[in-house]
């Protein structure tokens, strides 16, 4: 008994040592970003890398706001991200319910079409898609970006897979109780899929927040541009201001982390005993 | 289900229709193209007068020109050029549309696809980008306009000949950059070695670079620095005027590769593989103050001056520049060049005014504006060189000013149907040579075969 | 009798139609947007693989010529080979590590949220920063940390990593696992939350050990998640692009044959050479491969569902 306990402690120690090592390895890029954000561009890529800059340039954090309209860009990105995430969440979880829990004609074919489109690189259909959107008068509008991002197949696919994991017996029981499909979706599926919904929020948020090529092609008016386009503005034809880029990148990560950390609490509670027995 | 199929088919056909329709429906403005009656008169008059006269001819209706470009926030000459133009054409507003520099060609190509774009003037970034736009048929040929308004192409030092495709010119250059050799005077002073000169052969250059090199670990001085671009080495070979980079035979690059590989081995320049993975920008390399000489384009002048003024570059404040080294028996002043040009899309809503703008910016008045901002215009003369050299922060020695005067310039990539495909082959072999993965001879064989296969297609 | 049957049939048909309609009403909001703005252009783009088109001049149908051309192109073949090699290694390695991490970080350990966030970090961090750190560790110079380790601890010759054609794919695979494992870990974490505690409790009562619980509860319960992760991983591996560009592309932006991947080839054909038909043909090849992989998986999933 004693040796078993000792083994467990040793096991715990090993786990923690491994985790801490892993954490260090994962954190190095962040430290690099922080350090680079406090440097002149000319010193960023010089080896040996100076992890703690001798003369930190806090000025970088001021310059990024004046050299480009960063505040406006951030606002645009925030607006787009929130709308896209909301729409994506709503429509994907809705559609996924049908794919996972309802029998209907053409289900597998349609689902396969969804999944298969994820496999087509955007570079291939970017040009026809752009010409089509321009025809509709959507070039240089935020609506174009919203439309492009909000109905992605990814969300449907992911939500469907999580719904698959929820026992069918739950839905059957509710149907017998006379609940409509919409009721089952709203009252049973949604509450049970909080971890999955959180995951989808995180991924959609990150994707839209960091999207670059889409806004670059569609948004040409300065006042409509987004954060990631702004970051690339520091890379000009003849020089690249990596000190400034990193300063802005560090700041742009803050919302991502807020979202990630605040959704962590939904990753704890699984399906409780009561709900399974329904 | 059927409904879904129908709706998706509908969507596809809608898109197909929108694409097919673009070609025909949106080319209506072409009818406006009938030019002003003033043309014969303009031909006789001098270029400057022509501008004034056509300006009178056009009506005073307000016109907005949409200009596609990149790096609005960091480029100093866009606004002055626009100001100078609108001073002569008060009814015109020029709207700049920044498409970003990193993916400019992709974005511009997409925007111009299908003739639905409303750009009046587009900046053309490089020759492969130019060729692909011409192949797509989205640029207006300028020959007739040039003949009509008597634009003197000889002022562009023959550059326009190198971008003429099948007898047609589709762009007018307004900015031109030449390659020079930058050097850090402090390093030469410390080593007690005489500065580079405007008349050096490649052997003399090699010897000079080696003479200031110091390989002591921790306090290295690099006699030379080559950025990872193939242009820095491969193109040195075309400066004798006997070869071009699109011929399909590359034996002429051998001596230059051998020179640099030997330098790399002896620690005269930094190791290519490390440089490539490290991603060190050439400006950062020069700013460290341990690079004695570096071959680079004249665009670096403005960066250097600015960064020294800002206090960022502290270890290369005492810099100078000289003409590119030359092969034995070749006149000094032969160098590489790149051009930035303006073109008019076939779909431009205001073609007449767009042409006025293009003519102005790439003409004499535009050239002066460019020079005043420290950039070399495509159209140069002594006055322009004086203007640039008198800029605050430009090296004060005579040699540096003299370095701006060229005898022959060769485009880094001449206009060729296959230029982007040829570049791919050349870039790959350059990388393999510099990584020392294949011998120079094998790489040259591979270049010859690869490029000849492309040309033969 | 016959009339009765037909009314029954009618009723059944009616019920079925109703059921279909309800299902379609769930799908419609997403599907309409998806079909018009994504599926449509994709179908069109795939049809383009039988045509010659530069985005402006009239489209010309040329049959299978694009396919003949790409399969004769060294760069395409190299990119196909590299992509397959990359995927074969990256998919299983990332999957196993992500699952392991998720299980580890699903336990009640101190600082769990911190570790989760940190693991997710390389996925969201600026690619420039992540690549810069990576290249510092795996620099081709002898002084690099990893090369020092190779020489002094393992006593083998230093490697040139991303700078050499023999090790560049290895470097890219390791980098990609490191950068993306946190992403798939998050998906697995969400999947783990869906497993009922009851199952584990019951197993404990039966005296099952940790391995048995993992083998007989966790793995089968996670099957839908694993299906998702495998397919997404495969697709994302086949679509790899920016990592390769960052690690193996020089300042010319050129990626050598030794590191060419399919999407890079597609990008080059589409936006450097403006041969959209050829780009589409290459995409169709990519599409076909992924479709086959997905169908195999799909069948496997259905078998599981029938169990």
Report helical residue fraction of chain A: over 70%
Classify the oligomer: heterotrimer
* Main sheet overview of chain A: none
**Overall mean confidence score, pLDDT of chain A:** 87
What does this entry look like structurally?
The complex is a heterotrimer of chains A (278), B (457) and C (307). In chain A, 73% of the residues lie in helices and 0% in strands. Chain A has 15 helices and no strands. The radius of gyration of chain A is 24 Å and the shape is flat. Chain A starts with a helix and ends with a helix. Mean pLDDT of chain A is 87; it is low at 271-278. Chain B folds into 2 domains: 62-177 and 338-389, 3-Layer(aba) Sandwich (D-Maltodextrin-Binding Protein, domain 2), CATH 3.40.190; 178-336 and 397-455, D-Maltodextrin-Binding Protein, domain 2 (3-Layer(aba) Sandwich), CATH 3.40.190. Helices cover 46% and strands 13% of the residues of chain B. Chain B contains 21 helices and 9 strands. In chain B, strands 1, 2, 3, 4, 5, 6, 7, 8 and 9 form a 9-stranded mixed beta sheet that branches. In chain B, β1 (63-69), α4 (78-88) and β2 form a beta-alpha-beta unit. Chain B is globular, with a radius of gyration of 24 Å. Mean pLDDT of chain B is 85; it is low at 1-8 and 20-57. Chain C is mainly α. Chain C contains 13 helices and 2 strands. A two-stranded antiparallel ribbon of chain C has the order 1-2. In chain C, a hairpin with a 7-residue loop joins β1 (51-52) and β2. Chain C is flat and about 85 Å long. The mean pLDDT of chain C is 87. Chains A and C meet through α1, α4, α5, α6 and α7 of A and α1, α4, α5, α7 and α10 of C.
Task: Tell me the layout of helices and strands.
The complex is a heterotrimer of chains A (278), B (457) and C (307).
Chain A: H1 2-36, H2 41-44, H3 59-67, H4 70-101, H5 107-118, H6 122-135, H7 142-150, H8 153-164, H9 168-176, H10 181-192, H11 194-210, H12 213-218, H13 227-233, H14 242-262, H15 273-277
Helix pairs in contact in A: 1-14, 3-14, 4-7, 4-8, 4-11, 4-13, 5-8, 8-11
Chain B: H1 2-25, H2 39-44, H3 47-57, E1 63-69, H4 78-88, E2 92-98, H5 104-112, E3 121-124, H6 127-136, H7 143-149, H8 159-162, E4 172-184, H9 185-191, H10 202-212, E5 222-225, H11 231-234, H12 254-265, H13 272-278, H14 282-287, E6 291-297, H15 299-310, E7 319-322, E8 334-343, H16 351-362, H17 364-372, H18 382-389, H19 398-402, E9 408-411, H20 419-434, H21 440-456
Parallel strand pairs in B: 1-2, 1-3, 5-6, 8-9
Antiparallel strand pairs in B: 3-8, 4-6, 4-7, 4-8
Chain C: H1 2-47, E1 51-52, E2 60-61, H2 65-72, H3 74-104, H4 112-124, H5 127-137, H6 145-152, H7 168-193, H8 197-205, H9 210-221, H10 223-238, H11 242-248, H12 262-272, H13 276-306
Antiparallel strand pairs in C: 1-2
